[in-house]
Amino acid sequence: MHSTENYLIENLTRTPSRRRLLKAGLAAGFTLAFHLPLRAVDEMEQSANNKDQFAPNAFIRIDHTGKTTLIMPQVEMGQGVYTALPQILAEELDADYAKVALEHAPPSDKLYGNPLFGIQATGNSNSVRAFWKPLRIAGAAARAMLVRAAAEQWQVEPASCTASNGLVTHADSGRTLAYGDLVDAAGQLPVPPAPPLKNPKDFALIGKPLRRLDTPGKTNGSVVYGIDTMLPGMKFATLAASPVFGGKVKHVDDSAAKSVPGVRQVVVLDDLVAVVGDHMWAAKKGLDALVITWDEGPHAQLSSADIWADLRAASTKDGAVAKSVGDIAKGLSQGEKVDGDELPFLAHAPMEPMNCTVRLTPGACEIWTGTQVMTRVQATAAQAASLPLDKVTVHNHLLGGGFGRRLEADMVDSAVRIAKHVDAPIKVVWTREEDIQHDIYRPVYRDVISASMSGGKIVAWKYRVTGSSIMARWFPAGFQKGVDIDAVDSAVDIPYDIPNLQVEYVRAEPPAVPTGFWRGVGPNNNVFAIECFIDELARKAGADPIAFRHGMLGKTPRLQAALDLVAEKSGWGKPLPARAGRGVTVQPSFASFIATVVEAEVDDRGEVQLRKVTSVVDTGIAVNPDIIVAQLQGGLIFGLTAALFGEITIDKGRVRQSNFNDYRMLRIDEVPPIEVHVVKSGEEPGGIGETGCTAGPPALRNAIYAATGVALRRLPIDRAALAVGRKA
C-alpha cells in the first residue's frame, strides 16, 4: 500500500458497522446498498423504503425479471471498471452475469465517496482496490438473503440450498427459484451481519477474461460520450481563452464572425470569448473570424527558461522531511550525487476534447459531461449559476480518455458562464488547440539524489523532489507540514533495503501555470528518478542492473519474483546489436508489484527505436486478466510516448504546442511488441491503470544508457545528446 492511500485511510475515512454497510430496503424490487462511507448512514436508514431518496454510495437493484443493476460509483474511461466491478459483484452474488446492467451514479460525496478518498472521485488506480471488499460483502449478503427467502418458502434449512447463475436450488428436491421471484420476500429479511465470503478457489467469474460490458456499445456506436449529447433546440459553442496565462479580454471585433452563416451570438466574458452557432462548424468558423485584442497581464514575458531557473534554484534548498530513517549525514559521508533529473510540463490530450452541455433555466441547471469528479462538477456548476446545490443535476457519461484531466471542473465553470448569456441549451466544445494550450498540466519536477554504497549495496540515500503541490490546491488534507503526499509517492516507500534514508519535498509553484494530476503524477516522477540512479549505481558497483536490484529487495519478495520472471521473459543478458540495450525498472506503486524491461536501439543520429517491451505484474487477485494486460499495454505506450516526445514549453506567456503535429504521439508503426505476464496471486487486488505509464520511461532511459553509455538527466529524450560524436 503506497503512502497516499495510507494517509487517506488513516485520516479521511471511518468504518461503518456491517449492518449499516449493508442496509437493505424495497425499491423497484429488492434493493441492497453495498458501500456506505462517511455520513450517509442516517439518510439511508430514513429513506430505505423511498425509491426517490434511497441513494446509497453505490447500490445493487434486482428487479422481478432477475436483472441486477449496479449503480456505478466509479467512472469508465477505458480502464475496464465497468466490467471488473460487476464481475466482483456477480461473483459473490452468484448472479446471472448476462443479466447485469449498469447505471451511472448521481453526484453525492456522502453516498458515493470513494472509500480511499472520502470524496466521489475516480483516480489513483484504486477503483478495484477501493470497492473489492464492499462489493464482495454486498454480494454475499444479498445471496444469503435470497437463499433464505427461498428456504423459508420451501420450509427447508438455508444450508440445504445453493445459489448459482441467478437461481436458488434445493438439492434434495431439485426445486429452483429465480432471483426475480424472490426479491419481495428477500427485501423483508434482516441483513446478515457478517456474510461469509467465497474462498478464492471457488471463484467462477473472478479471474476469468470475461467480455467487457462496454465493448458492444463502443463497437456499434450506440455509446454516448459527453461530446455526443444532443438536446432539443440546442446550440453549439466553441471558445478562445487568453493565450497568455492570466490574461483578459481587452477588445473584440465580432463583425466578421456574425456574418458567418449559422452564427447566432458572440459571448464576451472577462477571460474568454465564445461563438454560439447552429452547429459546431458555424461556431468554429465564427471563432476563426473574430479579431480579439488581449490584455496579456503580468505573465506576458514568462518562458520555460524562467520556470526552470526558478525550479533549479528552489531545488538547492532544504525541503520538508517526508521520511527519515537511520543517520543520513553519517551514511552520506562518502557518496555519489546526481545533480538533478528533470521532467517537463505535460498535457493530457485525451481523444475526446473537453466539452460540457448545459441547460440553464431560472431555477435549475442540468449538466451533461464526462467527469472523474461528479460532486465537484455539481458544486462548480452551482457556484457559476448562482444556484443551490440541489438545483443542479449532473448526467455523467463514459469518458473518451481522462488521464487525470477530468479530475478538474474548469470546463464546466466556463460552459455555465457562457450558458448564462444564451437562451437555449448549449454544448460547449474546446478545439484541440484550446484543449492543449489551456490544460491543467503535469508539473515540472526536479529531483536531486545523493547515495553511498558499501559492499556493493546502497547504505545511504537522500532524495529531494522539487515541484508544485497539486494536493495543496486539489485536496488540502493531502498537504500537511510542507509535504505533498502525492509528490513523494513511491519515494517514501522505495522498495530497496537502505538503512539510512531521507526523503524531502520542496514546494515550488511555477508562475501562473496551472498544474494537476497526470496518470501517475508523483510516482511517474519518482520512479523515473530513482530507477535511473539505481542503474548508475549498479554500473559504479560493476554489477548487472537486475542482480544489483535483486540484492536489495529482500523485504519485497513479490517484487523479487517479478524481477526474476521479467529477466527470463525478456531474454535479459542475450546478445544485442551495437547501440542496442535493455533497461529495467521495478516499482511497488499503486499496491502492485511490477518489473519491466524495455529493449531499444539508438541510431547514429540519436533516433530511438523501440524493439520490445516486457512487463511482469503481480497485482494480487486478477479480477479480469485481459483488462490488466490491456491496461499495462496502454499505460506503457502512454508513458513511452511522453518519454520520447512529451513536453509543453512556454514562450512569452504562451504554450507553444497546439495539436498532435507538435505534441507528438507514438504512432502505430512505432509501437514495439509488448508482452505482459500476469503473476497468479492470492493477495488482494492492486492498482493497474497508471503503473505502465510509470514503468515505461525509466526502463527506456536505462536501455539507452546500456546502449550508449549516456546517462540522460531529463525527458523527453534528447536525440542530439545521443548522436554519435556528441556528448550528453
Walk me through what this model shows:
The protein is an alpha+beta fold and about 725 residues long. Helices cover about 30% and strands about 25% of the residues. The protein has 22 helices and 30 strands. It has a seven-stranded mixed β-sheet, with helices on both faces. Strands 1-2-3-4-5 form a five-stranded mixed β-sheet. The protein has a five-stranded mixed β-sheet with strand order 14-24-21-20-15. The longest helix is centred in the first third of the chain and has 28 residues, at about 125-155. It is globular, with a radius of gyration of 27 Å. Mean pLDDT is about 90; it is low at about 1-30 and about 30-60.
Low-confidence stretches: 1-28, 32-58
- Please provide the count of β strands: 30
DSSP helix fraction: 25-40%
Major sheet summary line: 7 strands, mixed
Q: Could you tell me how far the N terminus lies from the C terminus, measured between alpha carbons in angstroms?
A: 37 Å
The class by helix and strand makeup works out as alpha+beta
Could you tell me the radius of gyration in angstroms? 27 Å
Please give the count of helices. Answer: 22
> Strand sequence of the main sheet, in spatial order?
11-12-9-19-16-17-18
- What is the average of the pLDDT values? 90
Spatial shape = globular
Strand content: 15-25%
